[in-house]
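user: can you give me the structure for this one chain? tokens are fine.
assistant: on it. calling the predictor now.
[tool input]
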Amino acid sequence: MSMTPTVIGESQESARGLALARVRILAGFFGLCAVGTGIQTVIDIAARFFPPLGRHSPGSNSLAPALGGLVTLGLLRTYQLLAQRRRAGALVATVSLAGWIIESLRVGGPRWDVAFLSALGLAIVAAAWRYLE
């Protein structure tokens, strides 16, 4: 039994819809990470001015708020690009996820949960690549 062009078209459209839904989930993940790092950055800044709010010590990294802000902006931009279904967002996400895999396998023994979730994110990006603009 052969598939008619309509069935093939519907099947391809269904695969496209599923791939783009996964990209939206990945975009949401990056958005959630941006919110988390943003909150942490605000807490870090507040702890510098109001020591009872945090564990800030004079010897801690004075660049931490700036670095936290940069990471937050990077995560937000990745979220925006993925939400717009742009290939640039997929490329940035790929670099981020690959970095997380490397870091999870390097520091203090392997973190297989982080490596697995990052690899899953890479698979989502790869599966949706052809549907991105």
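assistant: here you go. The chain has one domain: 5-131. The helical segments are 5-49, 64-83, 87-106, 112-128.
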